[in-house]
TrEMBL record, chain B:
Origin species: Streptomyces pacificus
A GO term, aspect molecular function: acyltransferase activity, transferring groups other than amino-acyl groups
Domain (Thiolase N-terminal) ranges: 5-112
Top-level taxon of origin: Bacteria
Protein name, entry field: Lipid-transfer protein
PANTHER family, A to Z: ACETYL-COA C-ACETYLTRANSFERASE, NON-SPECIFIC LIPID-TRANSFER PROTEIN-LIKE 2
Residue ranges occupied by any Thiolase C-terminal domain in the UniProt entry: 275-391
Length: 150, 395
């Protein structure tokens, strides 16, 4: 069976194939340079700004762990999970992006546990799969620890 | 001073009773009216703190309580501000009294909480951040509490033992409170033995969701004097501020903070600014407080509030706890009521219940959990989506 790949939210991340070019997509105000994620497309939320045009901008690929936790119990809907399958905990990260000076949440890539994380560790954003149903693979972003370069 | 009198306070015990929130609110209102020594016919305005997850649609708080108490043709208001609903109800009542619109106002909040994690309203609503955080991340409320807790451990050296001690302290106080849902002492060892919900927080670190109801009768100072309450507990400040752009901590239900690229972070974080606004309005400071009731949604969050209320310098919350300062009998008891640890959260009732506790403490009628010589108290809480909430009461 072939499922169609669809982003769980449209316009929040790049959809081209490949890990290298994958980025979260925000918007930037042309007047004050404030960055927004999730994207603002109507009004710049900086109260000191007169309000400029908001243009799409890719966010930094790498950031540092601000904090982390995991979900040991099944979250309620609309989180998609098979109620007949045993619950598999996943890891949740809050990641600080230096250039954007903001913290962005996201699930960790599969297999990353809290034991492997520490505040301040470097992570990168990679494409991931949130869930699959009969005809759709719902895509999302994941945070994954950056391997030490050898 | 722009003060209003607390003529009466009343609560329906917290629990998991499985009945209508109207019943809890009506019982609490009856208790508050009896405490005030006035008839429900004397009430000229009813302000209901709303319960969206359970009371809506179909039951809009203000009118639902006014109807249950018997329509009086009184002014009616319904407010919803998530966990801060109760404080906004108090604020609305106060504004009506100070504006001369009503002399006596009944404030009521009550909840019938569903079992398990709070969940967003149903339907496909991708423009709602509260829906999105569940859909995209499965991020429950305890997940956010856990992110804050882990951050404290990394920044300030807090330990899970510290968190467990908060629960033990609050359970000891709650054991003395007939309105609390949980009234048995809990040891730090019991916390450590409970299952992890969201690392590093365990089941007994995270507050439950409860049924309950709380009510206040507020009046003008003139009315209080005319009715023989010459020295009532007074509400001196109500803070209902939002955060200041840009936020620097991912708040519920957000998926990201603001960016501090265009404008640097504000001098005060959100919770600090809630307390600051209350202190400024009340013209007093942390050193003047006899006690505080803070929103211990998690044990770790209580330590954060110590710092944000200025009870100790940033990063020293765990030290304040370890020194016993925030326990009953300590320098500045926090959550003498037992807190959410002993009550579980009944969302629209909780901020009102905090003021009920201050009222009894300031009157000196809090029984076995009485803070001796209590003169001033602050409540603090933070509602989903950026609703600040703090109340200062004095006597």
């Amino acid at each position: 069976m072939t499922r169609i790949r669809r982003p769980v939210v449209a316009g929040w991340f790049t959809e081209a194939d490949g890990e290298e070019g994958f980025r979260l997509l925000g918007t930037r105000c042309s007047a004050c340079s404030a960055v927004f994620f999730p994207r603002e497309d109507s009004l710049c939320r900086n109260p000191a700004c007169e309000g400029g045009a908001l243009a799409e901008v890719p966010l930094s690929k790498r950031g540092r762990v601000w904090s982390y936790t995991d979900g040991r119990y099944r979250p309620p809907e609309p989180y998609a999970s098979d109620p007949d399958a045993a619950w598999e905990p996943y890891t949740l990260l809050a990641v600080e992006l230096e250039a954007e000076r903001m913290v962005v949440l996201g699930q960790a890539a599969p297999g990353v546990t809290v034991a492997a994380l520490s505040v301040g560790a470097e992570v990168e954003v990679v494409p991931g799969i949130l869930s699959e149903d009969a005809d759709t693979t719902w895509t999302t972003w994941h945070w994954r620890p950056v391997q030490e370069e050898r | 001073m722009n003060e209003v009198a607390v003529l009466g306070a009343g609560m329906h015990p917290w629990g998991k009773w499985g009945r209508s929130f109207i019943e809890y609110g009506t019982a609490a209102a009856g208790a508050a009216l009896a405490d005030a020594g006035i008839s429900r016919r004397d009430v000229r305005s009813v302000v209901g703190a709303g319960s969206v997850r359970c009371g809506y649609p179909g039951h809009v708080a203000g009118a639902a309580f006014a109807r249950a108490l018997g329509w009086q043709g009184a002014r009616v208001t319904s407010v919803y501000a998530a966990c801060a609903s109760g404080a906004q109800a108090v604020d609305t009542a106060r504004a009506q009294i100070l504006a001369g619109i009503a002399e006596v106002v009944l404030v009521v909040g009550a909840e019938s909480a569903p079992k398990g994690f709070f969940a967003p309203a149903g339907g496909d609503r991708p423009d709602d951040p509260d829906w999105l955080r569940f859909r995209l991340l499965g991020a429950t409320n305890p997940a956010y509490f856990a992110l804050y807790a882990r951050r404290r451990m990394a920044l300030h050296g807090d330990t899970t033992d510290d968190f467990a001690r908060v629960k033990a302290k609050n359970a000891a106080a709650g054991a003395l409170n007939p309105h609390a849902r949980y009234r048995t002492p809990v040891s730090a060892g019991q916390v450590a033995a409970s299952p992890v919900v969201a690392d590093p927080l365990r089941l007994l670190d995270v507050c439950a969701t409860s049924d309950g109801g709380a009510a206040l009768v507020l009046s003008s100072m003139d009315y209080a004097r005319r009715h023989g309450a010459g020295d009532p507990v007074r509400i001196r400040a109500v803070s209902t501020v939002t955060p200041v752009y840009p936020t620097t901590e991912p708040g519920l239900p957000d998926i990201a903070t603001d960016s501090a690229v265009a404008v640097g972070p504000p001098a005060l974080g959100f919770r600090e600014s809630i307390a600051r606004a209350a202190y400024e309005e009340a013209a007093l400071g942390p050193e003047d407080l006899s006690l505080a009731e803070v929103y211990d949604l998690s044990t770790a969050l209580e330590l954060q509030w110590y710092e944000d209320l200025g009870l100790c310098p940033p990063g020293e919350g765990a030290g304040l706890l370890r020194a016993g300062a925030t326990a009953l009998g300590g320098r500045i008891p926090v959550n003498a009521s037992g807190g959410l640890a002993s009550f579980g959260e009944a969302v629209p009732a909780q901020a009102i219940a905090q003021v009920c506790e201050l009222t009894w403490q300031l009157r000196g009628t809090a029984g076995a959990r009485q803070v001796s010589g209590a003169r001033a108290g602050m409540t603090a809480n933070q509602g989903l989506f950026g609703h600040g909430s703090a109340v200062v009461a004095v006597r």
